Amino acid sequence: MIEKNNLSFENTEIAFRHSSNFDLKRAYWLFRVINVNFLVKIGPPITNFAVKIGLPIKGLIKATIFKHFCGGETIAECDKTIKNLHNGGVGTILDYSIEGEDDEHVFDNTRDEIIRTIERAAVDKAVPITVFKVTGVGRFSLLEKLDEKAQLSIMEQEEWEKVQARVMAICQKAHETGIPVMIDAEESWIQETIDMLALDMMHLYNTQKAIVYNTYQLYRHDKLASIKNDHAIAVKGEFILGAKLVRGAYMEKERKRAEEKGYPSPIQPDKQSADKDYDASLDFCTDHIDTLAFVAGTHNEESCRVLAELLDKKKIDHKNPHVYFSQLLGMSDNLSFNLANAQYNVAKYVPYGPIKAVLPYLFRRAQENTAIAGQMSRELSLIVKEVRRRKLVK
Ligand SMILES: Cc1cc2nc3c(=O)[nH]c(=O)nc-3n(C[C@H](O)[C@H](O)[C@H](O)COP(=O)(O)OP(=O)(O)OC[C@H]3O[C@@H](n4cnc5c(N)ncnc54)[C@H](O)[C@@H]3O)c2cc1C
């Protein structure tokens, strides 16, 4: 039986303390629009079209949805957000959000930009962890070929060596500066390659401290077993396992592909099974806190409560550097700021990058926050509660 503590996620005063009345009103109107299913459906194609033909809508996007979910277009533009979060006891994870690029120069630039986020973290305690995606520094279809164990051509082999060198350069910088770097999880048909790369990096750089973290998607039925297996490898190899725990972001895509290609879906049969494995992974990680460092990347209130209670039950200090809670900027501030207020380690992803490049990310956030069965989304209902408390609207 898990011990109960007094943690509350209902306090919207703490959750939105860092938001001015203006910020809150903007968020209120933004989420009212996002809550309308129809607008979220027609929004992305209209926006993409408008950007493509050069309509001057960048300013509008930047002042609204971009401002809510992103820190800025550059690291320097994220300064205000970093300070704001820090004032509420929440760290920043700078997330350079370029998506869908396929060019060697872009991959080199992305590597350099990730290294700049690590350099920033090295001189700013408000930025405690960093992150990147392997598809930000390497071609998706190359990773796919590697996952299939297909024969690479000589050119592809050279290309793969470059991808590994980029990943190595990032992890090497993280090691030099002592700043943890997380590797995001992606689609299952490239994940084995990412997992192998991540484990190799941990072997190299995690002997003294958890520097490299891989991501485990617990919506997959095999990932609780992977954490346990990787932990056994880490113990044997005398390094610390770094693990980011998430449920997983590609469920529909995964199921569709499995059906189309006629293989069993890697996704759990239902949400309860994903929830059960997620919470079991929290239990496993807290049981091995000396040899495993982890970040719980979740907006699920119950999982945050379970973890907070496990820490108290197992007498793990709230500030133990081996455990972090993490949410995305502009979402679940009730969790982030109330956890930070109770002295737990918390850091939020702060996505940044050129507006055009982060549009797919913004569309996903909008889709996630539409009304479910005609009800207000959770995010909107929290904003409404705070807006009413401050008497900003009736
Ligand atoms: C800090 C942070 C980092 C993240 N990094 C990554 C990453 O690297 N890779 C990645 O893939 N995702 C990542 N995510 C997204 C994450 O995987 C989830 O999609 C998202 O957080 C929603 O899950 P939840 O735990 O917050 O809560 P909930 O809202 O409780 O769970 C929703 C999730 O449950 C799962 N689910 C829903 N229905 C079913 C079903 N019928 N069967 C099985 N599973 C179901 C899905 O994963 C869905 O996204 C990250 C999220 C955060 C907050």
Strand content: 5-15%
Structure summary, number of beta strands: 8
Major sheet: order of its strands? 1-8-7-6-5-4-3-2
The residue ranges in which pLDDT falls below 50 over 5 or more consecutive positions are none
**Which structural class is indicated by helix and strand composition?**
alpha/beta
Mean pLDDT: 92
How many domain units? 1
Features:
binds flavin-adenine dinucleotide, alpha/beta, TIM Barrel, 8 strands, single chain, globular, 394 residues, eight-stranded parallel beta sheet
Textual characterization of the structure:
The chain has a single domain, classed as TIM Barrel (Alpha-Beta Barrel), CATH 3.20.20. 54% of the residues lie in helices and 11% in strands. It contains 17 helices and eight strands. It has an eight-stranded parallel beta sheet, covered by helices on one side. Helix 14 links the parallel strand 6 (292-297) and strand 7. Helix 8 crosses helix 10 (188-205) and helix 13 runs parallel beside helix 14 (301-313). It starts with 11 loop residues before the first helix and ends in a 5-residue tail after the last helix. The model has no long low-confidence stretch (mean pLDDT 92). The protein binds flavin-adenine dinucleotide. The site of flavin-adenine dinucleotide (FAD) has 24 residues, from strand 4, helix 13 and strand 7.
